[in-house]
Design goal:
Layout: E1 10-14, E2 20-23, E3 29-33, E4 36-40, H1 45-51, E5 57-58, H2 59-66, H3 70-82, E6 86-90
Antiparallel strand pairs: 1-5, 1-6, 2-3, 3-4
Length: 92
C-alpha cells in the first residue's frame, strides 16, 4: 500500500521541533520542518497551523478544519511521514 490510508480516525503529529510556515505573495504555503521545505496550496494552511500546535490531530479533524477531503490530507501527511517529520498512529 502506498501512503497513509484515507482514514479519518488516524492520528498524526509532527515529530520535529522548530517547524515553521510562511505564505508567499501568491498565497502558497511554505512549510519547513526537519531541514526540508515544501510548498503547498493555500487550503493546506489550516492543516499546517493545527499540526504546528504540537498536539495530535486526526485526519478527519484536519479535513474538516481545512475543507480538504480526507484523501488529500492523507496524501499530505504521507509526504511528511516519508520525510521523517510526522508520525501516524491509531488511537487506542
Amino acid at each position: 500500500m502506498d501512503g497513509i490510508p484515507a482514514d479519518g480516525c488516524l492520528c498524526v503529529r509532527l515529530t520535529v521541533a522548530g517547524a515553521w510556515y510562511g505564505v508567499d505573495e501568491n498565497g502558497h504555503v511554505l512549510f519547513s520542518a526537519g531541514g526540508q521545505e515544501w510548498t503547498f496550496s493555500s487550503p493546506v494552511l489550516a492543516v499546517i497551523k493545527l499540526l504546528l500546535q504540537g498536539r495530535t490531530a486526526t485526519l478527519g479533524g484536519l479535513s474538516v478544519s481545512s475543507g480538504l477531503p480526507v484523501g488529500h490530507v492523507a496524501a499530505l501527511v504521507s509526504e511528511l511521514v516519508e520525510a521523517g517529520v510526522a508520525a501516524v498512529s491509531r488511537r487506542r
